[in-house]
What we know:
Two copies of one chain form a homodimer. With 150 residues, chain A is mainly β. In chain A, 0% of the residues lie in helices and 35% in strands. In chain A, the strands form two sheets. Chain A has a six-stranded antiparallel barrel with strand order 3-4-9-8-5-10. In chain A, strands 1-6-7 form a three-stranded antiparallel sheet, with no helix packed on it. Chain A starts with 12 loop residues before the first strand and ends in a 5-residue tail after the last strand. The mean pLDDT of chain A is 93.
Amino acid sequence: MPADxxxxxxxxxxxxxxxQADAGxxxxxxxxxxxxxxxxxxxxxxxxxxxxxxxxxxxxxLALTGLAAHPRVQVLYWMDRARRDLxxxxxxxxxxxxxxFALRSPVRPNPIGSAVVDLVAVNGTTVEVRGLDCxxxxxxxxxxxxxxxx
Amino acid sequence: MPADxxxxxxxxxxxxxxxQADAGxxxxxxxxxxxxxxxxxxxxxxxxxxxxxxxxxxxxxLALTGLAAHPRVQVLYWMDRARRDLxxxxxxxxxxxxxxFALRSPVRPNPIGSAVVDLVAVNGTTVEVRGLDCxxxxxxxxxxxxxxxx
Lengths: 150, 150
């Protein structure tokens, strides 16, 4: 994995970030997973992986109406521990210098993660899914039916 | 399509939005498409659709390094004309009242669109793709290799 809060590795390049944001995100819930460090996270979520729990804020309860009809759901989340200024990265796995947009690394100008997961159950404001790979406590940004099954 | 700036339709319900944002997005470029109104946009992007052009800001030029090796790319964008407070919507197409998270409507607390497209070419800071369905001028939020081909 690339550096996310430490020094640049050889070959990595950072850009100056814009002085201010262009739009604001509302965190709409919290994702609960078994993984508490980046090292523990699977590189890629698996349909055979553990059930993870998405706790949606009460404010958005009604917005879950009908979600249970969709077997596959896209989850967007905010990878809030990653630095945002790298344009070239040296992933530990390959060591090869590569552009940020050619990687799915959390290190990117807008650290939004996207996963398509199997929906297990919707209970009130709790959504159980399989196939996530993010850290416990990750802020939720969006849920929508997977495009290919919607 | 649901209301995005007008009155609520019968059965639609809005939530009070949080007083402030939890995180800030940087717009990293602009998407150019042939569609200037929501009515003109295809409901779903097609691999047979027109080539659309993604203009990435100069600041992020190096971040495109290596992207051209990926035949399929995920594009995240900001649907900046949509209202954000609906929890129940009545899509014009069906008229059925349904929760926001059970729809891919632009009307949602965080109006982030996600599309997986065919990469046609990368020329400097311009990325040509097929398969988008968003409005001309839509702000770009992220580019990453499609998970299934990365």
